[in-house]
Specification:
By secondary structure, the chain is mainly alpha-helical. 52% of the residues lie in helices and 11% in strands. It has a two-stranded antiparallel ribbon. Helix 1 crosses helix 2.
C-alpha cells in the first residue's frame, strides 16, 4: 500500500564529527519509491540503502576507519535523519490523502 506514494528519493545529510575539521555537508539520494515499507524484506533493503549512503557521506578521514567513534556517530546521525525524513514524507502524504477524502465526503453527503 505504501509503495504507491510518489516520494522517490531522500537526502542523507552529514556534518558529523568525523568531518568536523572540514564541516562540509554532503548528500546522497536514496531511492525508496519502489519499496513496500510494510514488508520486512523491503525494510531490510531500505536499511541497506541507508547504510550504504551513510558510508558514503561519512567516509573516514585519512588515518581513520569506519570503526572510529566519530565516523560511527556520523553514520548513526545520517541514518536517523534519513528515517525521520522518510517518516515525515509518509505522514504528509497520508494527511493529504485523508484531507482529500474528507473534502470529498463533505461534498457528497
Amino acid at each position: 500500500m505504501l509503495r504507491h506514494f510518489t516520494a522517490a528519493a531522500l537526502l542523507v545529510l552529514c556534518t558529523g564529527a568525523a568531518r568536523a575539521a572540514d564541516a562540509v555537508e554532503t548528500s546522497v539520494n536514496v531511492s525508496y519509491g519502489d519499496l513496500n515499507l510494510t514488508s520486512s524484506s523491503d525494510d531490510k533493503i531500505l536499511a541497506s540503502r541507508l547504510t550504504a549512503a551513510a558510508k558514503t557521506v561519512c567516509a573516514p578521514q585519512p588515518g581513520m576507519s569506519y570503526a572510529d567513534s566519530g565516523t560511527q556517530a556520523c553514520m548513526t546521525s545520517a541514518i536517523n535523519a534519513a528515517i525521520s525524513r522518510i517518516q515525515d514524507q509518509l505522514e504528509d502524504k497520508l494527511r493529504a490523502s485523508r484531507d482529500a477524502d474528507l473534502r470529498e465526503a463533505m461534498a457528497n453527503p
